[in-house]
Amino acid sequence: MNPIVPTVSSGTEGPLGLKHLPRLWLKTLLAACGRLPEGYKATGPGFDYMILEGLGLDPDEVREHIFAEKPSYLAFEQWIKEHPDSDTSAENIEKVNAIVIERKKSPESRAKMLGENGLPDDAPIFDSIMLNNLDDWREIYAALGLD
Q1: Considering the entire predicted model, what is its pTM?
Q2: pLDDT (tens digit, 9 = 90+) per residue, 1-51?
Q3: pLDDT tens across 75-121, in order?
Q4: Would the CA dihedral through 53, 57, 61, 65 be positive or negative?
Q5: Pick from 69, 68, 47, 75: nearest CA to 59
Q6: pLDDT at 107
Q7: In total, how many domains does the chain have?
């Protein structure tokens, strides 16, 4: 089976209101089904760990849950809300979302990602969400054989 590029943005929220959670779920579900493209992380360091740890959840436990149960997105959110260690209060979600919104790539990662997308080092793109979007869009374009 062909890999599927997880083109859900880190800026996307589900009903719980948590940014990046739909992308984390999709990447991990794709990995569980053997469909995540090479180079993508399923519940790995970065945004994934930041939001899960911000919620009070163990990333390994979350990954194991998705791999074992393969829940729908809404079932995954429900599992998080019912998890005894999870803090899904509005205040905490706001705090975790701020981490996602404010995160910047290292200068080296930013330069590499801009270059891979044919953009100059002085392009006015600094936030991690947009840089990740650019990578996904480039990957899906290539997967369609259009590069």
Answers
A1: 0.93
A2: 899 999 999 999 999 999 999 999 999 999 999 999 998 999 989 999 999
A3: 999 999 999 999 999 999 999 999 999 999 999 999 999 999 999 99
A4: negative
A5: 47
A6: 95
A7: 2
C-beta contacts of 40-49 below 8 A and 24+ residues apart: 40/5, 40/6, 47/10, 47/20, 47/23, 47/100, 47/103, 47/128, 48/20, 48/24
CA distances to 121, 129, 131 from 115, in Å: 7, 17, 11
**Cα–Cα dist 57/54, whole Å:** 7
Q: Which domain holds residue 45?
A: 1-103
Q: Is 83 found in the same domain as 111?
A: no
Encoding tokens for residue 47? Answer: 């945004």
Whether 54 contacts 92, CB under 8 Å: yes
Gap between the Cα atoms of 145 and 147, Å rounded? 6
Q: Which of 24, 16, 15 lies closest to 132 in space, CA to CA?
A: 24
CB 1 within 8 A of CB 31: no
Residue 52 sits in the same domain as residue 9: yes
> How many CA atoms lie less than 13 Å away from 24 in the CB half-sphere?
28
